Amino acid sequence: MIKVNTEDHPWYSGMTVRNLLDEKVYTFRHIIVRVNGEYVPEEGFDEFAIQDGDDVIVLHLMAGG
Amino acid sequence: MTLERYLRNQDAISDAEQEILAQKCVLVVGCGGLGGYVIECLARIGVGHMRVVDNDVFDESNLNRQLLSSSMNLGRPKTLAARQRAMAINPLVEIEAYQTNFTAENAPELVAGCDIAIDALDNIPSRLLLQQAAKTAGIPLVHGAVAGWMGRVSVIQPGDDLFSQLYPAQTEIQGEEMERGALSFTVSLTASFQAAETVKLLLGKPSLTGELLEIDILHSIVKKIKIT
Questions:
Q1: Which CATH number fits the domain that encloses residue B136?
Q2: For A65, nearest residue in chain B (alpha carbons)
Q3: Degrees, nearest 5: CA angle B109-B16-B18
Q4: Which of these CATH numbers, 3.30.390.30, 3.50.50.60, 3.10.20.30, 3.40.50.150, describes A2-60?
Q5: Which of A46, A47, B11, B195 is at a distance of 20 to 30 A from B185, taking alpha carbons?
Q6: What is the pLDDT of residues B204-227, one digit of tens each?
Q7: What is the pTM for the complete model shown?
Q8: Which ipTM did the prediction report?
Q9: Range B167-177 average pLDDT
């Protein structure tokens, strides 16, 4: 089990950031991801492996006022 | 004795708290979507002094969401409309209007003497400047941002650096709002949360410090995310 934006989410071995984003169906083009506080740049989404128990924050890039 | 205009603030706000609000100064940077509603709320509740900053004039594309815009004031400065609106609502509120961009050069002067700064900006570089200016001045910053059906609010204390987490690349100027626009209810709801956080901070009540309020109006979800 992992945390995604403070909520429990099922984990499986080999899960990458990209897999998680696909599961959650985030539609925004600009996504900010942190795993245990560490920023994961977009070019690393396919390779970055999420571990069991990780705390993941996924945010949309918003700057409108 | 409570002024009649503030009767319906009671008892949510006590007489003593009303007096505290009257003594406070709030800097509102941006008088567009978020800023317009924030200024409206703070003028009505009785924040005594506001300093409002924007270099823009209204155009037709603002009419879908910006409270201060109308078909009658297209081409006119947003700060002028902000000042006129706030004075019309509540002449007890002092309004200083600065028709300028928020820059590294004018930031110290604009922040000086304010108790809280409000981020109602529409771009990332200016937000980074404002966070630094608020930090230097030692005052909290109430952040708000919108894109489409989504909004976000948080409180940044002077020692915090929320924007390095929200805008880590620091190369982007705009966010998703360029593709998704901004809707009237997204802007008004997000700005209302900003105004409420501002009043809570001014009155020493618990605020959103260390947390993001994520507002997803399309799915009717408002969620707090702890962020460190």
A1: 3.40.50.720
A2: B122
A3: 55
A4: 3.10.20.30
A5: B11
A6: 999 999 999 999 999 999 999 998
A7: 0.95
A8: 0.88
A9: 74
